[in-house]
Design brief:
The protein has a domain of 136 residues: Arp2/3 complex 21 kDa subunit ARPC3 (Orthogonal Bundle). Helices cover 70% and strands 4% of the residues. The chain has a two-stranded antiparallel ribbon. The longest helix has 29 residues.
């Protein structure tokens, strides 16, 4: 078997394994996640941690494949299918792409997960991804309430302040996506580089 064929086989295997983990986590957590009442947006969703970790361990194609498999899994279990899974996918991909594109543009050598281990590199690129995510998801939530959801549902009590209408949509979208990004970036980094996982796989 050629080196290219072996790498492709390993990529497919890694995507299948981590996609399967994502699928199982979907089934176990999606119906029970704490969500904004009447809205559907989750306060925390651990499945995207698997997606980002998959990217850090195996690279872009496996990370994206895992995310797609996980999104398909959510279609079966998420109570807000298909909107919820699609929104989750759109929220997570900016994190992965910011890390990957940033590494290429900054000409990090080698082009591998190892180059993202230094926090002086990982943190700034993660922040860029979070900013892009927050902008995209705020716009998507505004679009969602303009087309599918009733704006009357956009009401939330936040630290004793009652937020309603578009104020609630924008502020909650920003806060929830920023908060979820901390988990996605932070826990994925710890799982990958504070354990022996990256050195064990040595995929890229």
């Amino acid at each position: 078997m050629s080196l290219g064929s072996a790498r492709l086989t390993r990529s497919i295997g890694a995507a299948a394994v981590f996609g399967g983990l994502s699928f199982v986590l979907d089934a176990l957590t999606a119906p029970y996640l704490p969500r904004v009442p009447g809205w559907g947006i989750g306060f925390i969703d651990p499945v995207s941690i698997i997606w980002v970790t998959s990217y850090l361990l195996f690279g872009l194609m496996v990370g994206l494949s895992t995310s797609v498999i996980g999104t398909i899994g959510l279609m079966f279990f998420d109570p807000f299918t298909p909107v919820g899974p699609i929104m989750k996918f759109l929220a997570t991909i900016p994190i992965i792409l910011a890390l990957d594109v940033g590494m290429r543009l900054m000409h990090f050598k080698p082009y591998s997960g190892r180059s993202l281990k230094p926090l002086r590199r990982y943190v700034p690129l993660s922040v860029v991804g979070v900013i892009v995510r927050v902008v995209i998801m705020t716009l998507m939530n505004v679009l969602l309430f303009m087309t599918i959801l009733n704006l009357n549902y956009a009401t939330i009590n936040l630290f004793g302040f009652q937020l309603m209408s578009w104020n609630a949509v924008v502020i909650v979208a920003i806060l929830v996506n920023a908060e979820q990004s901390v988990w996605d970036c932070g826990i994925s980094y710890l799982l990958t580089f504070s354990t022996k996982l990256y050195e064990q796989f040595r995929f890229w």
